Amino acid sequence: MHISFLITLALPLLAALARPLPGGQPESFDLELRTYPLDVDTLDLRSLSPREPEDLEVLLEARRAPVAVPVNKAAKQQDRKAKVRANVQKNQERKAKGRNPKSPKPPTMPHAPKTAKHQKTQAAANQRQRERKQAGAAKFADAKKAYAATSHLPNRKKVYNVNEHVNKKIQAVQYTGADARRAVFNSHLHKNNPVNFSPKVFGNRPQGPVGNKSKPIPYMNGKGQEFPLAKGHPGYKGERPGAARVIIQPTKTGHKFQGVVAHNPSLGKDHPGHNDHFLVKPSHKKLKGT
């Protein structure tokens, strides 16, 4: 067994590659390299000629050498198509017998025509969305109109200094006239759809110790409407409110801004005046650091 043995194995392969087809053109093959390891332990070294010691080195070097094997990709593709056709036929037979096919349904095209039921459902959803937008636009328009009919609105540059609980400590919080105006608008906007029970009725009832009771807003007669005061845009959204509230009151021509009231945060829950209000007077002085 020597180098001539390897040549003998390669000759049939070369002959197969060069065999012409009926059309006169040689058949084309794509070569795929595969590895066939040679077990050296089972090799009969006595069969090697002592006069050709290099043959042993050739065999040992070729034990892991790749061997070219002709692979016809066209034949493989035909086999895959045949398996697909067989699978489709099998699913059709299962469906004819009343059984669900195992293979998944083919994906629908992006622009495939929708069923009548789907079109009806989508049309109803679109109609609901249009109605919500129209209702929201009408609600905003009504609030804008009511805000325009509110008199005595504060100057946007005025400030209201209120003591509130901030991080479990009582600190001074500064609100501006612009914050108060925004709270007035939100009070009109959420009148029929309260946000965390706001706006709600402000009674302006007399409060304080017996014999020395007074109204929170002395110049206001009757009931009004209160809404939490918050800093910045868009104002109060339903979170835990602070101590300050804006007060508006209906009039014959619209509403009137009556002022800003607040609770005293230094009074505990057990104190009789815990829920009492006091009027916050506006000023032009800003807090330090603001």
Task: Characterize the structure shown.
Among the domains are: 3-71, no CATH class; 150-280, Nuclear Transport Factor 2, Chain: A. Helix content is 32%, strand content 20%. It contains five helices and ten strands. The strands form three sheets. Strands 3, 6, 7, 8, 9 and 10 form a six-stranded mixed beta sheet that branches. The protein has a two-stranded antiparallel sheet with strand order 1-2. A two-stranded antiparallel ribbon has the order 4-5. The longest helix has 33 residues, at 116-148. The radius of gyration is 45 Å and the shape is elongated. The model is unreliable at 26-38 (pLDDT under 50).
* Overall body shape: elongated
From N to C, what is the helix and strand string?
HEHEHHEEEHEEEEE
Name given to the CATH architecture of the domain at 150-280:
Roll
Enter the CATH topology name of the domain at 150-280: Nuclear Transport Factor 2, Chain: A
Task: Please count the helical segments.
Answer: 5
SSE blueprint:
Elements: H1 3-17, E1 30-35, H2 54-61, E2 66-71, H3 73-96, H4 116-148, E3 150-151, E4 159-166, E5 169-176, H5 177-189, E6 200-202, E7 224-228, E8 244-250, E9 255-263, E10 277-280
Parallel strand pairs: 3-9
Antiparallel strand pairs: 1-2, 4-5, 6-7, 7-8, 8-9, 9-10
Helix pairs in contact: 4-5
